Amino acid sequence: MGGQREKDEGDAALLRAVAAGDPAAMGTLYDRHAGWLHARLTRRCADPEVVREVLQDTFVTVWRSAGAHRGEEAGGWLWTIAARRLIDARRAQERAGRLETTPIDTTRTGTGTAPSAPSAEERVLTGLEYGDVGTALDRISPELREVLRATVVDGLTTRETARLLGIPEGTVKTRARRARAELRAALAQLTPSPMGGPA
């Protein structure tokens, strides 16, 4: 337990140094966290190029915004950034897919790689950020929304969410239940029954 506390304090000190513009601290932070972030992103996204870009974007964001770290557990803070960068990447892919008017030529063999379909989890991740679910998410109260984003969108555990948001684990569970109920109600309002008939 003491080792984890020391690591958290060490990460906080590194982030303060990064905020002050120390590239050596950034390198140490990267060495500590890039491995597990890469592994966790890979479980959510099958495209290694997207994972590489998201990991790079995550640490660019950390370099630019380390001053915004408020002392919460660094791993949770880093994962929140990485998960949001992954969502951004998926949004960009979705937009590119909608702009593409010609079907993919699957007969080409010169590229050496076939386009991979997004996993079910990736589709859920992008759906949670925009479309009806994203709209409904914006309609629920902010303290419930941040719990839902942390646990569902960012994939954090109850413990990680509690540390990230600075609230007890029991409160995370209670808010998550309320958030799901409010989200269902908001979605029901956004999705009227077909043809305007009775539900």
Automatic annotation (TrEMBL):
Is the Transcription regulation keyword given for this protein? Answer: yes
Q: Which InterPro entries match?
A: RNA_pol_sigma-70-like, RNA_pol_sigma-70_dom, RNA_pol_sigma70_r2, RNA_pol_sigma70_r4_t2, RNA_pol_sigma_r2, RNA_pol_sigma_r3/r4-like, WH-like_DNA-bd_sf
User: Any idea which UniProt keywords this protein has?
Assistant: Sigma factor, Transcription, Transcription regulation
Question: Is Mitochondrion given among the entry's keywords?
Answer: no
Pfam families per record: Sigma70_r2 (PF04542), Sigma70_r4_2 (PF08281)
Locate the RNA polymerase sigma-70 region domain: which residues?
29-95
Where in this chain does the record put each RNA polymerase sigma factor 70 region 4 type domain? 133-183
Source domain of life is Bacteria
Record family assignment:
Belongs to the sigma-70 factor family. ECF subfamily.
- Kindly give the PANTHER family that the UniProt entry links to this protein: RNA POLYMERASE ECF-TYPE SIGMA FACTO, RNA POLYMERASE SIGMA-70 FACTOR ECF SUBFAMILY
What name does this protein carry?
RNA polymerase sigma factor
